[in-house]
Amino acid sequence: MDNGLTTFLKNLRLETVTLEGKIELGKDVYVIRLARRQSFLPGQVVGLSLGGLPPRLYSIASGPDDPYIELLFNIKPDGLLTPRLASLKPGDALSVSAPFGAFLGDQKPAWWIAAGTGIAPYRAMMRAGLGHNKMLIHGGRTADSFYFENEMLSAFGERYVRCCSQESGPGLYSGRLTSWLKEQPQIDPTLLYYLCGSAEMVVEVRDILISKGVPIEHVMSEIYF
Asked: Is pLDDT above 80 for 26?
């Protein structure tokens, strides 16, 4: 994490909220539901902290009309925050910032590309009614790593591509999402392309898109640290 982001997070203003619920979506992957205090735009993030730890940023995974905020995360074994988040119970307190960020969905045709928990902002966008003219490409290691899978299948149908790098199964592309992208004979340079995931994934996908003729200004990214 660069010094500028570290300073920004250190100065982020937080308020106390209550955990309303927690669901385990897969091995070491959780959705937590928080009491909602403010409105937000689909694609925005919040800073989250517990016990005075430095806040981390999480994309909001619920829709702007939902009466709560949901956040998706996976436990990082060497992390300070996520193991403690996973141990919380309803009624426990934690600290959260106001929503912010510019990785915002809109009504224009686009491809939404995610790796792992990077699916979170696209769920918010989909629940806001922005998915009707979108293609969703989601990369995961195992067949159980396509979080919110049933919702996405219902919303996108054949426009939902699940790229599984370590397992095979019905409806899955066997391979990394970067391999799927490389295999596409044509990629429309007039569309917008949203990328959400690790820095390595974002850089690799961006380079693939550019090599296929997509202008850099048509590529928007949200990097997960």
From this structure: yes
Closest among 181, 197, 198, 192 to 220, alpha carbons compared: 192
* Residues 20, 186: Cα–Cα separation, whole Å: 45
pLDDT at 118: 97
pLDDT of 3 strictly over 80 = no
* Full domain range(s) for residue 54: 3-97
Q: How far apart, in whole angstroms, are the C-alpha atoms of residue 107 and residue 102?
A: 15
Whole-angstrom CA distances from 109 to 74, 99, 134, 138, 156 are 30, 25, 6, 17, 13
Q: How far apart are CA 37 and CA 96, in angstroms?
A: 10
The single-letter DSSP state of residue 145 is -
For range 36-44, the mean pLDDT: 93
> Under a CB-based contact definition with an 8 Å cutoff, are residues 30 and 22 in contact?
yes
CATH number of the domain that residue 63 is part of: 2.40.30.10
Task: Output b/e per residue, 68-107; b: 16+ Cβ within 10 A.
Answer: ebbbbbbbeeeeebbeebbeeeeeeebbbbebebebebee
Q: What is the value of pTM for the model shown? A: 0.94
54 and 78 inside one domain: yes
Cα torsion angle, 8, 6, 139, 207, sign: positive
Identify the pLDDT of residue 8. 84
The Cα–Cα gap between 217 and 66 comes to: 32
Are the C-beta atoms of residues 125 and 42 closer than 8 Å to each other? yes
